[in-house]
Amino acid sequence: MKTSRGAAKAGAMTRLGRVARCSRGSALIEMALVTPMLLLLLASIFEFGRMFHTRLTARHAVIEATRFAITGNQLTDEEGDPLDRASSIRRIVAEKAYELPVTPESIIITPADGGGPEDVVRITLNYTYDYAFPGFIDALPSLSFSVAAAMRNEPFYGTSGS
Known about the structure:
Blueprint: H1 2-22, H2 26-69, H3 85-96, E1 107-110, E2 120-129, H4 134-139, E3 143-152
Antiparallel strand pairs: 1-2, 2-3
């Protein structure tokens, strides 16, 4: 009886050994299933960070342009001639949003000329975010956002109150 029990035990061990040998490829299959999900997660994290950076850059540009606008100052063009206030404000937005492709049509200034002393000036930037990864471009809708800032103009130099 001992021999039959021993034979049964040996047969069970060989079957267990075959099962163990068959599961060696399971790690490869599991990796093949998990890797795309991991790459998608990493790409999503990168894309979210890039989108957040774009929004912060646009907000910074609008705030800096608003701070410039309230002083009543004007920039000069390449020949040294003064620009009007609205063009000066638009140029500040474009300079401060250095890495974003900002068009003059996407910058809205209220009042359109930048306002006078003690007026409230509001600058709005409308921007459409472009995804970096091709899969996101095809799968997700384009993301448009708007950032704005408003401040009261200071009494400009040479006006009453200064």
